[in-house]
Design brief:
Elements (H helix, E strand, L loop, with lengths): L7 H16 L6 H8 L3 H4 L6 H27 L4 H16 L2 H12 L6 H29 L6 H19 L4 H20 L2
């Protein structure tokens, strides 16, 4: 499917995402976005009020995509053992965030938000973390019921989110082999810890 078959708003967002991810909010001009789409800068204003409006539209779509991803994966793994569910979800996050533009966008804007958008980005981050926490609550609650997890629910979830955040950061600094080895080591310690062994 050629890019011209997508509606103009989607074409603009598709062109803007990698620019925002690689150049940052401040380093991405509307002129660059327009050029990437093959239109003139004033034409962007027929679809978006400002660069902030365009960026927030992209961020909302990315967050919706993330929440949909979580729901799909939780449903897919619901009949597995607790350890498998949590581990598969962790691995899936790695794959999901390896999408270069998506991973860069998350890293850049969640760690270093533009001041003009900081409050809005924090709201989006909280929505994403709540979606993740809701999925984890169900898995951990069932794991405790089965006797797989002895740790307190909140402790297990906090530890898991820290493990996930560390795994995410490792993606950007280490080779796939080193990343996998570190993930396996961290996972073994995490699982033993929440099992109460």
């Amino acid at each position: 499917m050629s890019s011209t078959t997508f509606p103009m708003i989607e074409r603009i967002e598709r062109a803007a995402l990698p620019l925002f991810a690689r150049k940052g909010f401040e380093g991405t001009s509307l002129s660059k976005i327009a050029k990437s789409v093959g239109i003139k800068k004033p034409s962007l204003y027929a679809h978006f009020d400002s660069k902030e409006d365009l960026f927030l539209s992209i961020l909302q779509k990315v967050n919706r995509d993330y929440r949909d991803f979580l729901e799909r994966q939780a449903h897919k793994y619901r009949n597995m053992r607790t350890e498998q569910q949590l581990y598969c979800l962790l691995k899936d996050h790695t794959t999901y965030l390896e999408n270069e533009d998506l991973g860069l966008l998350f890293k850049r804007f969640m760690l270093f938000p533009p001041l003009v958008l900081k409050d809005t980005l924090n709201e989006q981050f909280i929505k994403s973390e709540k979606a993740l926490t809701d999925v984890l609550i169900e898995i951990v609650k069932e794991g405790k019921r089965r006797g797989d997890i002895q740790a307190e629910q909140s402790e297990a979830i906090d530890a898991y989110i820290c493990l996930l955040d560390g795994t995410f950061e490792q993606l950007f600094y280490y080779s796939e082999v080193v990343h996998e080895e570190r993930l396996q080591n961290a996972w073994r310690i995490f699982w033993r810890g929440i099992q109460g062994c």
